[in-house]
Every structure is written in structure tokens, then in C-alpha cells.
Amino acid sequence: MGHAVEVVAKRLEIGSAAARAGAAALSDEERDRARRFVFDRDRQRFVVARGVLRGLLAARLGMRPQAVELVYGERGKPALAPRLAASGLRFNVSHCEDVAVYAFSSAGDVGVDVEAVRTMPDADDVATRVFSGRENAAYRALDPRDRPLGFFQCWTRKEAFIKALGHGMYYPLDRFDVSLAPGEPARLLRVEQPPEDRRRWRMRGFFPLPGFVAAVVTEQVDNHCTGDPR
User: Fold this and answer.
1) Does 105 reside within a domain?
2) How is 14-56 classified by DSSP, letter by letter?
3) Domains contained in the chain, number
4) CATH for 214
């Protein structure tokens, strides 16, 4: 893949057959995690999404999906096990409802997030609590019709950034600003220093499937990005 970042979007086929196929590729740890889901549909989504991830990783590593060994960082971010780290492949995954988005990078850390664009009764309150002051002002300046998209563009861009960092939701969300207005390019506008330099990161917003918005943040130097929205 050179220094490319590859993004793959898929609509998950949720059902018993797909779940059985996905489960066949999972590790014992992943099967145990799947059993902890309370609802069958959530369990199937996890199993199928993780099975697809293993298939995509296996195709890029030239091995069987069952042989792909994963480890997890302090905040839960998945990565290839040390014996596979020499490949230089980094990845991240996000799924919402029946849509999953996968990002692969050969040059540095990567984070991705996807959400269904919808109207939330408490969106204004959430924006006040979660967005930075600059982001909240930009959100409230939007036409009310544009606020659902603006809200989830901000949310996915912030989530993708902290996933790229590997800090999860422990990273203070008011320490950085992202663009959010519909039609405005996705950008990381400010990151408090130290510890992070915003020039290290590239942000891209996109629509993986109708009704969904997503963002990917990468540490790579160039901006070559390929997509496979299926």
C-alpha cells in the first residue's frame, strides 16, 4: 500500500449464517467478548464486523483470518501482535447500526468513526457538554436544518482523532477543535501543545453510505487516500 491510507466501508450482513461465518474466524477472547452482549443483534453485529476485519487484515498480510493475532492498548485500541508488527500495518474500525468502516495505514497511526445522521432531542445539550467552546459556537451558528449533520460531523471527527491517538474518551475533548459546518472541509483546527502537534495529523470527512457520516484521521505525510464503499 506504500504510504496510502485505505478506507473500506461495508454494510454488514446480519443474520445467523453471517454470524456463524464471522465467528469461525474469531479468537477465543473475541468469542468470549461476543457472549457478553445482552442483545442478539448487538452480538451479531460485533461478530460479523470483527470477522470482516480479520478477513481484510488477512488479505493484506497474506495469511488466514484465524491466524491474525491482535493485541489491545491500554485504552482498548486494537493492533497487530508484535510478531506481525514488522508489516507496518496500522488499522482502526468503527461500526454504527449495520454499517462498518475500516481504515488501514502503512505510514502511521489511524482512527476512524462512523455515525448515522439523525435528529437527537438533546443534541444542543450534548454539544454544550462535549464540544469545545469554538465548536459549540460554530454548531449553534448553523441553520437548524444543518445542525444534525454538523453535530455528527463534529462528533465523528473528534472521535476519529482520539482513536488515532489511542487515548479513547480519556483525552480531554476541549483540548482540540475540528471543523464541523456542512460543506466545509474536515480540518483539525487546534490542538493544545504539548503533547500533540496538529500538523502531524490529516483529517478527512466522508459519507460511506446514504444516511451516514464518517471521519478518518491519519498520521501519514501525504494525503493519498483510496476508498471502497461497499
Assistant:
1) no
2) -SHHHHHHHHHH--HHHHHHHHT-SSHHHHHHHHHHHHHHHHH
3) 2
4) 3.90.470.20
Go through 123-141 and write b for each residue having 16 or more CB atoms within 10 A of its CB, e for each that does not.
beeebeebbbebbbebbee
- Domain residue limits at 163: 112-229
- For the segment 208-215, the average pLDDT, to the nearest whole number, is 97
Q: What is the C-alpha separation between 75 and 68, in angstroms, rounded?
A: 21
* Same-domain pairing of 219 and 119: yes
| 44-99: pLDDT as tens digits | 999 999 999 999 999 999 999 999 999 988 777 889 999 998 899 999 999 999 99
Provide the pLDDT for residue 229: 43
C-alpha cell at 86: 514488522
How many C-beta atoms lie closer than 10 Å to residue 17's C-beta? 8
Are residues 185 and 223 both part of a single domain? yes
Evaluate the omega torsion of the peptide bond into residue 194 and state whether it is cis, within 30 degrees of 0: yes
Establish if 107 belongs to a structural domain.
Answer: no
SS3 137: helix
Least confident of 74-78, 81-85, 141-145, 175-179: 74-78
